[in-house]
Write a structure and sequence with these properties.
The chain is α+β, with helices and mostly antiparallel strands. It has three helices and seven strands. The chain folds into two domains: 74 residues, no CATH class; 69 residues. Helices cover 56% and strands 27% of the residues.
Length: 153
């Protein structure tokens, strides 16, 4: 028996599938497909807010340098504004890595609900529902690999 995927809630092997508290032998699954739910605009807005949090200090720093160079001020004031603008821009660097990592993780999780459905003799059954796009992809590919040899027989 080959194990294609295993976690505490899902087990996919060459002999069967255990998901959502139910067990199915591979020959019982006539057809398997997935559906995508509506986008979560809250997740998308959160990504945008993180992007703004990274870009805003950079823009403020660049604006300070631009204003310092365009306005006719004393040399000391101009140098102070340029250095201040550069420092504000550089202050975002340590935080930017953390923010961009959060954006990456939000893409791994996805912005919509994903479902795997299966057709058995008794009708259509929901095999799994998740918001985690990365986990969904692994499980769906494992399910396809498990069903592939059964189709060739």
């Amino acid at each position: 028996m080959t194990t294609y995927y295993r976690d505490p809630e899902v087990l996919i092997t060459s002999s069967g599938v255990w998901m959502n508290g139910r067990e199915f032998r591979l020959p019982e699954l006539i057809q398997v497909w997935y559906t995508k739910g509506a986008r979560s605009w809250g997740v998308i807005a959160w990504r945008g807010a993180l992007g703004l949090a990274v870009l805003l200090p950079l823009l403020v720093g660049a604006l300070a340098v631009l204003v310092a160079l365009l306005l006719d001020m004393s040399l000391g004031t101009t140098v102070a504004m340029v250095v201040g603008g550069i420092l504000v821009g550089l202050a975002v660097v340590p935080v930017a890595d953390l923010m961009l990592e959060r954006v990456d993780r939000s893409y791994d999780r996805g912005s919509r609900t994903l479902e795997i459905w299966g057709r058995v003799r008794g009708g259509d059954v929901l095999l799994m529902r998740t918001n985690n796009a990365q986990r969904f992809g692994r499980i769906y590919r494992a399910l396809q690999r498990a069903l592939e040899p059964a189709v060739r027989r």
